[in-house]
Amino acid sequence: MPFILGVVGFVYLFSKSRKDGIVVSLLFIFTGLAIVVYLNQPPVEPRERDYTFAGSFYAFAIWIGLGVFFIADLMERVIKSESTRSVISFILCLSVPAIMGQQGWDDHDRSNRFYSVDSAKNLLNSCAPNAILFTGGDNDTFPLWYVQEVEGFRTDVRVCNLSLLNTDWYIKQMKQQAYESAPLPISLNFENYIQGKNDQIYFVEKPQYKNGINLAGYIQLVRTDNPEIRQESGRGDYYTTLPSKNLYLNVDKNAVLATGAVPDTLRGQVLDRLAWNIGTNTLEKKDLIILDMIVTNNWKRPIYFSTTLSGSNFLNLKDYTQLEGLAHRLMPIKYPNASQGFVYDKVMYDNMMKNFFWRELDNPNVYYDENYFRMTVNSRSQFYRLASTLYNNGEIEKAKEVAEHCFKVMPDDPITYDIATPPFIQIFFKTGNEKMAMDIANKMGNRAIENLEYYKRERIPYGRDYELNFYILDSIIRALKEGGKAKEAAKFEEVLMSYSYLFNQ
Length: 505
Fold this sequence. Notes:
- The chain is built from 19 helices and 13 strands.
- The protein has helices at residues 2-16, 18-30, 33-39, 54-74, 82-108, 115-124, 138-149, 168-174, 190-193, 215-223, 253-258, 285-297, 345-355, 370-392, 396-409, 423-430, 434-457, 464-482, 486-498, and strands at residues 132-135, 158-161, 200-203, 213-214, 230-232, 238-242, 246-250, 273-277, 282-284, 303-306, 321-323, 327-330, 342-343.
- Strands 2-1-10-12-11-13 form a 6-stranded mixed beta sheet.
């Protein structure tokens, strides 16, 4: 209906004034189709970005408004009174925004949605006092800035956006006081990170550093622009190189133990030297600044990486981190069998069970879209890691409490069971909550079957949608078998095998 009214208004405007019609049409084209071409806009965005076309929306709204005049002129043949025509055409055309509002209100209603704020508070509360927190892009960072700047929440934590840490102005900003946070421990000078300097650092192996390079010494070489790590570019200038991928850093064990952050059972495992392979042929400016901070900080302030960061942002240091909630804390301990970070269950339990916020995530009357589900899946993942660690440590009741708390604050309605949910089936079986285990298995299994049947019926090509549902069914089958529910598992296994012809595509 709005489209038809807009097209009518477009024709009506041209019939009345060709020049005005051209002006509005140019506004529509330049702020719509031309924007797509000019920006070379990708077909897939990380979130809805129709605000890009706001100008063309305004132009089309003008046509919709003129469509009302067309309806009024059309009635002139039947209704002679101008005022009557105006009222009738207004009432008729008012049905367009009224229907749009009625149909779209629930999808756009943000009432009682707090998790964008609460997730920011949860991430900040994952950190010890006076921490440095590395975050990724917009969704990771903007909510944190809001709660700090507007609500004054945990202003002792310095949020450091890695997307911006490649810019000189942001690094300079990080070296200044911000509320309760002291300047970040960055030893490099402005001329070391000014735009165009050390934007990319390339690995060029040198024999004298075959067995590794002292990270503190390397940062000193960068700071003094030492010729030992410079390389001619062939354009008359030079660039900084990394002479070895193997880095090491001597550790002040007493300084680390004095923080109180090391679990009692691991105090004897604090390393004298942190040694690792950087695992990349190039370092970005942000990577150089992170390494500088690790050296200069000397374990005085806690350094955290958000759980939402990609693996490359950890610079191959994830093995040396402990999970304390929604953030990994860098520690000079090589945790055994902890490639995704050691779960410090005592601190993580207190954070997630006592210090986190979950407002309205259990309210089925609140509408949550896919962007919210991307945030909650991370929280469920960390709940699972905590619950499984507690179970493996013999704390069965605590593990059960954590798993049940996860689905108390984030139940299936409104936060639909997601990809992080199937592993909980085993936890519930092991901790004696068979009812919850079967509820998850049946609901997720039946939904996966419905999805697969829909893809098959609509002839949707094999891809990620299929694979996600295969993964869910496979996880449920294994969990049910392990829980002694072979008969129930057989129902889902039969469906999974019926799609086996797709596995080799």
